[in-house]
Structure formats: C-alpha cells, structure tokens
Amino acid sequence: MFLVLANSYFQFKHFRIEQEHCAMKVCTDACVLGAAAELAGATRILDIGTGTGLLALMAAQRNPQAVIEAVELDLAAAAQAVANAARSPWASRVTVHAQSLAQYAATTVPAPFDHILCNPPFFRHSLRSPDAARTAARHTAPDSLSFEELAQVAAVLLTPAGQLTVLLPPPEMQHFEREAALAGLFVGGRLRLRHRPGSKDLRHITTFTRQPQPLVSRELAMHEAGSEAYSADFRALLGDFYLAF
C-alpha cells in the first residue's frame, strides 16, 4: 500500500506539515494528487477536507497568484491546518474554515472556484477504526462527507470552465463518477496511480468538468519495474516538494 508518513511532522522543500493532531497523516497518494492536479491558470482554489492543509499548501506553492480556501470539519485537524498555513510562505493566501462543506457552502457564499481538490473518505464497507477521528477521515458515514454531497456542492461552486480533481481507489471512483454525472459533471481526465509498470491501479486521480470533453487517461508508476527505486516520472512530479529529490 501507499506510504503513510506517520511522524509528528513532514518536512517538504518549502514548507513543513505538523500532523500530530490529525487523524490522517501525509501520505504518498495525497502528495501525488497535490502535484498532479492541473492547476495552471487557477486563481481561486478550494481544498475540501484539507486535514493537515497539505493540498492547500501544495496548491499555494504551485500557483503564486492563487487564493486558496480550505474546509475541514474536524476541529483539531482544522487548527493544525491553520498553524501549518501560518508558518508557510503563503500565509496571506491560504484561509482554513473549520466547518462542514455544507456549512461552508451555505454560510460563506463563496465566489466560484477555478479548481476544487478533494481526497474524500472512501472506505464504505471495510471495518471501522476504533479511532473515531481516523474513522471519520477514512470512511463514508451519514455524518461525514458523502460522494453525493461532494459532487453536488462542487458543481455549484465551480466556474463554468472550472475543474474538480478527486483521489479515490478505482471501485469508489466508479461510485463517485455516477454521483458526479447526476450532478452534471463530466469525467475529463484520469491519472491511474500504480506501484510499478503493469501492476494494478491502486488509486485514480480523476478530473471532472462542467462541460463534456474527450477523456485523457494516463498512468504513473511510483517505482521502477522490479525495484524499490522511485521511477523517473515520480521523481519529476514530486521534485519540487520532496527533500529526497
């Protein structure tokens, strides 16, 4: 499975993520989402379920002119995201809202976004963790962010040419694509994330738009064939973020 960076902090090249109060730690697939999402030209970006603030800060680094808003339901995680943003070079451009997506959409009345990022809860049928915060972060539940709510709110908050990029395992992505279609969103691009060339897809990073367009599908192998060494493509993608690269 993907590497979960479970230390109390993770140091990137240009910012630091403190994560001791967050149920979901920095992990490899989320870093790939933050680096691979097509953010060129986006001036308003929303990170739904920001957790540590990782995606919001990656977006801020990639887009020097962008204003980033982030929403996080868990109060401890939201406070950590606020602190991480405040210590970053982009504190003036990142705002964290400690509330649910529904509350944010209803009370803030935000201007439309050019791009929305989300790494949503996805273990709909697996065993629940005894850690309630970790369970809420990883599992869909009646009181957590549902695929239906995410798709419907994103469809409202996107600009006409805006994009929603979501990270999910392939079975859950199929479910989300059905909800997105009902909300009027179309699949525009898909990055198939694998451990090695030829191995099974472990995550799909899928981009949705408000207008139909031809599907562009590509794949990324994190490691070289038959090796633990990171692939050249993976190193190039994360080169602006990982100290090791």
Q: Could you name the CATH class?
A: Alpha Beta
Q: Strand order of the main beta sheet, please?
A: 7-6-5-8-9-11-10-12
**CATH level 4 superfamily:** Vaccinia Virus protein VP39
Largest sheet: 8 strands, mixed
Total beta strand runs: 12
Strand content: 25-35%
Portion in helices: 25-40%
What is the 3D form? Answer: globular
List the helices and strands in order: EEEEHEHEHEHEHHEHEEEH
Nearest-angstrom radius of gyration? Answer: 17 Å
**CATH topology assignment:** Rossmann fold
Give the low-confidence spans. 123-142
What average pLDDT do the residues reach?
A: 91
Protein name: tRNA1(Val) (adenine(37)-N6)-methyltransferase
Organism: Hymenobacter fastidiosus
Function: Specifically methylates the adenine in position 37 of tRNA(1)(Val) (anticodon cmo5UAC).
GO molecular function: methyltransferase activity
Features:
alpha/beta, EC 2.1.1.223, SAM-dependent_MTases_sf, 31% helix, Small_mtfrase_dom, tRNA processing, Rossmann fold
Any chance you could write out the topology, listing elements then pairs?
Layout: E1 4-5, E2 9-11, E3 16-18, E4 26-27, H1 28-36, E5 44-48, H2 54-62, E6 67-71, H3 75-87, E7 94-97, H4 101-107, E8 113-118, H5 132-138, H6 147-157, E9 158-168, H7 170-182, E10 186-194, E11 203-209, E12 216-221, H8 232-238
Parallel strand pairs: 5-6, 5-8, 6-7, 8-9, 10-12
Antiparallel strand pairs: 1-4, 2-3, 9-11, 10-11
Question: What can you tell me about this protein's structure?
Answer:
This protein has helices at 28-36, 54-62, 75-87, 101-107, 132-138, 147-157, 170-182, 232-238; strands spanning 4-5, 9-11, 16-18, 26-27, 44-48, 67-71, 94-97, 113-118, 158-168, 186-194, 203-209, 216-221. 31% of the residues lie in helices and 26% in strands. It is of the alpha/beta class and 245 residues long. It is built from 8 helices and 12 strands. The protein has a single domain (25-238), classed as Rossmann fold (3-Layer(aba) Sandwich). Helix 6 (147-157) packs across helix 7 (170-182). It is an enzyme of class 2 (transferase).
